[in-house]
Amino acid sequence: MEVPQDRTSNKHHVEMMTDERWQAIIHNDATYNQKFFYAVETTKIFCKPSCKSRVPKKENVRIFRTAEQALNENFRPCKRCKPTNENLPDCEWVAQVTEYIDKNFAEKLNLELLGLIAHGSPFHLHRTFKKIKGVTPAAYILHVRLDAAKNYLIGTNKSIADISICVGIPNSTYFITLFKNKFGYTPVQYRKLYQSCEKKEK
Questions:
Q1: What is the 3-state secondary structure (H, E, C) of 32-69?
Q2: Side-by-side strand order, sheet with 61-64
Q3: Cα dihedral across residues 4, 7, 10, 12: positive or negative
Q4: Which of 24, 60, 94, 163 could form a Cys-Cys staple with 132, CB 3.0–4.6 A?
Q5: Whole-number Cα distances in Å, 197 to 181, 187, 201
Q6: Active-site amino acid positions
Q7: Per-residue confidence of the chain (202 residues) as pLDDT tens digits?
Q8: Contacts for 132-138: CB closer than 8 Å, 24+ residues apart
Q9: Distance between CA 164 and CA 167 in Å, rounded?
Q10: Is 168 left (phi over 0), alpha (psi -120 to 50) or beta?
Q11: Domain boundaries in the chain?
Q12: Which residues have a Cβ under 8 Å from the Cβ of 55 and sit 6 or more positions away?
């Protein structure tokens, strides 16, 4: 039996998570479609209960009675289960993935994981991302990581090994090779070059 809306929790149409609803989400139960929608705080995406996407952490889930309520709270419809029965434009979908990479570049990222998070197949994500951004997801991840490494080299005294871990490339030898291929200097050379330029300006 469905539990009525909890109007005391807050003013944003958030409904209570019940065991019944959680089981519907876990088991992709289509009989609950149109009874409620669930949104995930970490991805800002909302779905039908029947969605085949990866099961989110329970504490990150919010429940809404209607798709409109989720939209009003700035959640975006899942591209896989289409809770608004419309296709999410490719540019918006890629923007979601890009935002996730920008915030989580230090984590272990690959096409399969991004596909699960973005609720789409890895192949389709790879093709669509490249069409919109002009680079593959892997190339974009590397770009973000190496740019972050530059900031660490300039703004901190962290060791090269520590920086490589901080940007999600834990193999420091591999990190140094990637950095030099992109910028023409090793991380140590880049840091020294920046420091010498700073001294000259002073």
A1: HCCCCEEEECCCCEEECCCCCCCCCCHHHEEEECCHHH
A2: 61-64, 37-40, 45-47, 76-77
A3: positive
A4: 94
A5: 22, 15, 6
A6: 47
A7: 443 444 333 444 457 888 999 999 999 898 888 789 999 998 889 999 988 888 888 999 999 998 889 999 999 888 888 888 766 678 888 988 999 999 999 999 999 889 888 777 889 899 999 999 999 999 999 999 999 999 999 999 999 999 999 999 999 999 999 999 999 999 999 999 888 776 666 5
A8: 132/90, 132/91, 132/94, 133/94, 133/98, 137/97, 137/101, 137/111, 138/110, 138/111
A9: 5
A10: left
A11: 1-86, 89-202
A12: 25, 26
CA nearest neighbour of 92 among 111, 81, 77, 112: 77
Q: What is the DSSP letter of 15?
A: B
Residue for token digits 């289409």?
Answer: 82
Q: Write out the CATH class of domain 89-202.
A: mainly alpha
Does domain 1-86 fall into CATH 2.40.10.340? no
